[in-house]
Amino acid sequence: MATDFMPTVPVILGTWPTPLEPAPRLAQAIGLGAEDLWIKRDDLTGLGGGGNKVRKLEWICGEAIARGADTLVTCGARQSNHARLTAAAGARLGLHVVLVLAGTKGGPENGNVALNGLCGATVAWAGDVAHEELESVASSIMEVLCDRDARPVFIPYGGSSALGARGYVEGGREILAQMPGLTTVVTAVGSGGTMAGLVHALGSRRVLGVDTGALVHPAEVVADLVASLAGLPSAPEELRLRVDHVGAGYGELTEAVLSALLVAARTEGLILDPIYTGRALAGLVSAVVDGQIQPGERTVLLHTGGLPGLFGHPATVSRAAEQVTEFHLG
Prior knowledge:
This protein is an alpha/beta fold. It has twelve helices and ten strands. It has helices spanning 24-29, 53-66, 81-93, 112-118, 131-147, 162-178, 193-202, 218-230, 255-268, 277-289, 307-310, 314-321; strands at 20-22, 37-41, 71-76, 96-101, 122-125, 152-154, 184-189, 207-211, 240-242, 299-303.
């Protein structure tokens, strides 16, 4: 296994450990045994509506404060969970936050967009661009801030750097302490840092990633982060990554994901989002169908949060509303 990190002191932003809850009805509904499936509730991390980015931001913000920063700058999609939690972290720590978001002013202002405003973040709308272009816009904003005598620190897309991924090295160890006999942890893969940290902590055979379509080359990004965490030139092990649930693209709802949202809600009262956790469960269902995950194996589904983003996804809200059954008298 990889070597440990050089000492770095994170700030504390979340409530740890998050619960690990059994999901027996969901397990049986997707073809597993009643005791096989557990949900790691990283939607309950506390800060800003919760979610997996809190673990990353503890390390990133700890370094930013150590460097004397007074402003956090980051980027993401319009409904970015990472952006929302960066805004919340800045509010908690007394730091200014500038969010560079894809899209334009005047679009839907629900979901995470509204929460960014509540937390006092400043938003720069970058238009409909890829995340690489968002980082270019963020770089220009960093220069302007420095000219104004601010002390900004840039946080990469999704908080996914070797530093941010340390949060999920600790998260992986936390899961292992709660369930020493686990076989597989299933996680959505967006910007890649969550999966990379889990692989560092647990080894690649015990981590199954489900691609969301956020990156053009997700396996390469995750492998590079794993290598950086290990201090090696390349990742030492082959990754387990499903790419069959991207559908028409990152922001698009698929029928398999809608089915996953419904079965989780109707068996466990568990609410997932359509971009990340819904895809993670859809990938888990497929893995059971094709034998990649089998009954009798202790499996953990990482709930990475994202509920506010569901309310900023019109297609999901509409399809969910269609599921309502009306009661008729007489």
